[in-house]
Structures are given as C-alpha cells and as structure tokens.
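Aim 2, interim progress: modelling of the adenosine-5'-diphosphate-bound target.
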Amino acid sequence: MQLIIQDLNKTYSNGVHALRGINLTINQGMFGLLGPNGAGKSSLMRTIATLQEPDAGSITLGDINVLTQKEDLRKILGYLPQEFGVYPKIDAETMLNHLAVLKGITNSKERAETVKVLLQKTNLYEARKKNLGGYSGGMKQRFGIAQALLANPKLIIVDEPTAGLDPAERNRFLNLLSELGENTIVILSTHIVEDVKELCTDMAIINKGEVLYKGSPLTAIDEVSGKIWRRRITKAELTEFKQNHKVISERMIAGSPIIHVYADQQPDAGFESVQSDLEDVYFAKINR
Ligand code: ADP
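Predicted structure of the complex, ligand included:
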C-alpha cells in the first residue's frame, strides 16, 4: 500500500500559504517528514488525518480516496497529534479500555486482551493503574501510541513526538516506533534531524510549504559528501564569513562559533573537510 499525495495546496483564512503544491509518495516503513517550525508539517499531517481540508490536490491510500472517503481512512489510521491531551484523573488501563469500546471492540474478553498487549508493548503495564495526570511526558507519548495502535492501523502519523522528552524517554519512544510493523506506513513528523537519521529509511525535507528534498537519508548524505567544510572563527568574523561563503550552519562550541560551509572546493586553507551528516543536508536545503 502506498500513500500518494499530489499537488496539495492550502492557504489559511489569514492568508498564510501553508502547503504549496506538495507531491509525495510514501511507502510502507518509517518515513521522516523533516522541517523547521512553521514549515507546514502539521498542516500536512492534519490534512492526511482528515482533520482539515486542502484547497486543492489529492491524497490516496491504496484504493481509498482520503479526501472523500474520510470514514474509511479513519478506520485504519492511528494518529498521535502534537498536543496530546489526556484525561488526568483516569488511569491508563481504564482510558484505553474506554477508547477500545469507542473503536468498536465490543467483546470484553478480546478488549481486555488488546488493552493488556498494548500496555505491555508500550512499556506501561506496570503503570496501568496510575492516573494519566501523573504520567511523565514520555509516558504520555507512549500512551498516545498505545491508543493510536488500538485499531490495528495501516497508517500511523506521529506529529513532533519527541519534543520535550528527555534523552532516555526519547530513546524509549523511538525504539517503540521502530518496532511498529513493517506492513504499516509510519510518518514521523519532526524538526529533530537525529530522529529521522536514526529511524527512517525514507524522508522528505519541507520548508515554507514546499518539498525541498525527498529520498533516503543515506542518499541525501552522499549528495553533499565532500562539500561540507568547517572552520572555527571569532564572533566578530561571523558577518563577514556569511557574506563571502555559503554558511549553512553555525554553532557555538566553548564560546566561539564553528561554521559549516557548503562549497565544491575548499574555500581557503583555514577550512577543513568534514564528513557530511544529515544535519548538513538539512541546513543546506533549509538555508539555501
Ligand atoms: P509546522 O507543523 O511545520 O510547525 P504548521 O503546519 O503548524 O507548521 O504551520 C505552517 C504555517 O501555517 C505557519 O505559518 C503557521 O503559522 C500557519 N498556520 C498553521 N495553522 C494555522 C491555522 N489554523 N490558521 C492560520 N494559520 C495557520
């Protein structure tokens, strides 16, 4: 099954053109949608999840026309939104059981078994009697995945899931995502390059509503290989370097800036070659 997005456009009533002719074909496996804040990721995710309408374009999942057969899509969709609210005074097991009823799992024995398996899978079984209000950020996100998996989804969308998680929680969450079936399309929308690098076999970079790159992360890294140069400079030199070179990123290390420059040849003897990374690809595309 493939998710095919064609010529998708959306302008909000305030005039923001959030999606500008998006074309993407997404296969089974883990797909990373990478872009800075405001790039249009959530707009795209919400449109695929049938929560908002585009102005133009089409989306199909297998033989489902997502924009007209919303109910059919929702039956096989697992969606974890950016802001995932939970009822604070209900424990995880009760809540999941309740959501399972809403999903139509009416047989109580089957439901109890499903809930148990999902709590175990998301490593929440021990904390199943604890109220959701007392859950950490990572536990809430894992609960979000548990509820998203209730319907045995064929398409799973997770929007910015690791923002605000500490490193250990983030690892646990990413490991959980990576275990989701190979027969499922999982779209991971994020502004964190590492998330995509670690997990995704295929990806797209979007900015200002446009797709700037689509392909595998490894191919993307290969494409800029040998073209990324690093130099330590002083703060005072930064403006000048930015004027004269294609500075794709700058970061402070021990109080002075290290810049990465994109160039076919070594810009001057002060620069050293660095092994390119997905982060370089990302910044080269975003800051082009
Ligand atoms: P991302 O998820 O990549 O941060 P969004 O899709 O949330 O990006 O936003 C893309 C652009 O659309 C931003 O400029 C944002 O301010 C704008 N935007 C998002 N949602 C709305 C909305 N409901 N009404 C008006 N503008 C919106």
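Residues 30 and 186 are 5 Å apart (CA to CA). The chain has a mean pLDDT of 92.
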